[in-house]
Design a protein that fits this description.
8-stranded mixed β-sheet, 6-stranded mixed β-sheet, globular
Length: about 575
């Protein structure tokens, strides 16, 4: 429950609020409207405000020394607070984007040096038996499916992904579950302490540190296999210090992180292909022709075999497979995961050699340029009962997720590229296509400051104009609460100015995209908790048997805050 009442909003609803096209609301607690440009107020929660100065007031070394010279506990909360100090601030990220990622060239040797300072060598990572997965969209889902398949074959499996949704410990999983707060704290300090002791003025940044910590955790816990999701790109990613994975996967490619990876799809494909290693098999999905050509050239240069995962329906038993993650795009992710897990199981001697036909030319879907022909189709095999169970029981929150609350159904998906928001729109149109006429249908949206809000919103605008209109749309920053701070949700990588501007840019884009469509009332809200309260305030306007439909999309950070605000458990 929320302490604020919504008398102003309720009155607006009574006066025909659903017909208002461009109202902007700031609250609760203070709901206001205006017809012009909104003058923003502070959008950050206490303890959340990123630094907007060109550089930190003190160096990271001084910050760390100040923090850790004083007596402190070594709990999970202490560990996350220390971890947050390793975040690159918004100014540092802006400098990196300005160089086009050129200063990333030292990333791999630096990461290896950090690994050595923690007491490990690259050779030690061979014991992890890694499946390494890159891609623009679907790589996390593919990783989760792959982990689930290996688990069903009786293996102890480590899974490293990013970002987290609710708590940082979600990034490091064993047998599908986030490691416990106690284990997280233990492994954090075992990784952190030797780094501090050997050079507090030279500490790895947030993601790089977590990568090192994940390696330590998986070795300590004696896992049989590790599924390793690339953070960004591939060539210079911290995960790419693994020199000899068992198999590599490249999920669907699209446009994201353009300032770092490049402005063209071939450039992005080249960055993702950087995880390829000599003699290590690589499986990918259908790609645009120029991207596929880049992958083919890179595989030839590196000296590895590149194959194409077939459609899930082409496997014996694949057509009848039920997936925990809904949407046609996840059926492709599941196929890639089947290929990666099956290759791992065969190479490690858990299963006999793959059955099926090899060497066939890939039969690409009609949406993919036929000039990608010639990539060998990976052999299909029977989707065994264990694999069927793995695909049906995979847990991967925040992706094609449906959350039921009294009178409200939330459709939650972390889509944050134009391709993935299109996939999300396709999923939502099927999942939410049937509802009682006149029931509110709400879109909650936010996106990163460097992303094109109009491009991300276009598929939802098409739904709005094409028979599945949104009666309301709300735009809020990736800030959970104005009243309290959450350590795991702290984010210094986005400036306060950017936090301020994101919702307004998205609102303006939506207003332009839907100018000729059905009426849509718009709210610009200060926090995710306030957004949930606003949605709850709509419930009196619907009948007892009707349900408000809410689509939440555009940012995994928004999704995490929404799950937290809805009281979802960490799973």
């Amino acid at each position: 429950t929320h302490p604020h009442t919504h008398t102003k909003l309720s009155c607006m609803l009574c006066r025909g609020f659903s017909a208002v096209r461009s109202a902007v609301f700031r609250g609760p607690p203070a709901w206001t409207t205006c017809s012009g440009q909104l003058r923003s107020t502070a959008l950050h929660a206490p303890g959340h405000r990123p630094e907007s100065t060109p550089a930190r007031a003190v160096s990271m070394a001084a910050t760390l020394s100040t923090s850790f010279d004083t007596p402190r506990g070594r709990t999970y909360k202490d560990a996350v607070e220390a971890l947050n100090q390793l975040q690159s601030n918004s100014a540092a990220l802006a400098r990196q984007r300005a160089t086009g990622g050129r200063d990333m060239s030292k990333s791999i040797p630096e990461t290896i040096a950090f690994l050595n300072r923690t007491g490990l060598k690259v050779a030690d990572l061979q014991d992890l038996n890694v499946i390494h997965i890159a891609g623009t969209k679907g790589k996390g889902s593919t990783a989760a499916f792959s982990s689930s398949i290996l688990q069903q074959h009786g293996l102890r499996v480590g899974l490293f992904t990013s970002p987290h949704l609710i708590e940082a410990r979600e990034r490091i999983r064993i047998d599908g579950a986030p490691i416990s707060p106690e284990l997280f704290a233990d492994m954090f300090w075992k990784t952190f302490d030797p780094l501090m002791a050997s050079g507090a003025d030279n500490m790895p940044a947030y993601f790089r540190f977590l990568t090192l910590m994940a390696f330590h955790t998986f070795l300590d816990q004696k896992v049989d296999a590790v599924v390793l999701e690339v953070g960004m790109g591939g060539t210079y990613d911290a995960t790419n210090i693994v020199s000899q994975p068992v198999v590599c996967g490249i999920a669907s490619l699209g446009f994201d992180h353009l300032s770092i990876l490049g402005n063209t799809l071939p450039e992005i494909a080249a960055a993702k292909a950087g995880i390829m290693k000599p003699g290590v098999p690589v499986v990918t999905l259908p790609q645009r022709a120029d991207a596929m050509a880049t992958l083919v050239r890179h595989a030839a240069d590196v000296g590895c075999e590149l194959r194409l995962a077939p459609s899930l329906d082409s496997y014996p038993g694949g057509k009848d497979a039920t997936l925990a993650l809904k949407g046609d795009h996840h059926r492709w992710n599941a196929s890639l995961a089947l290929q990666l897990a099956h290759t791992w199981l065969c190479k490690q001697g858990v299963l006999t050699a793959a059955e099926g036909t090899s060497g066939k030319v890939a039969e690409l879907p009609t949406t993919v340029d036929s000039s990608a022909d010639g990539v060998a189709l990976a052999p299909s095999f029977t989707v065994s009962p264990l694999m069927q169970i793995a695909l049906a029981s995979c847990v991967w929150p925040g992706r094609s997720q449906v959350i039921e609350r009294p009178g409200i159904t939330y459709y939650v998906d972390g889509a944050h590229t134009p391709e993935s928001t299109q996939a999300c729109a396709d999923w939502f149109s099927v999942a939410a296509g049937k509802c009682t006429p006149g029931c509110p249908r709400v879109m909650i949206f936010n996106c990163g400051g460097d992303r094109d809000a109009a491009a991300l919103l276009q598929p939802y605008a098409a739904l709005h104009a094409g028979g599945l209109p949104f009666t309301h749309a709300a735009f809020c920053p990736n800030v959970v609460s104005q009243k309290r701070s959450y350590t795991d949700q702290s984010n210094m990588m986005v400036s306060a100015v950017c936090l301020d501007q994101q919702p307004e840019k998205a609102r303006s884009a939506w207003l332009q995209l839907t100018a000729d469509g059905p009426p849509c009332a718009m709210a610009q809200v200060r926090s995710i908790e306030d957004t949930v309260a606003w949605i709850e305030s709509l419930r009196p306007s619907v009948g007892p048997d009707d349900r408000i439909q809410v689509l939440v999309s555009g940012s995994l950070h928004l999704i995490g805050g929404m799950l937290l605000s809805l009281g979802c458990e960490v799973v």
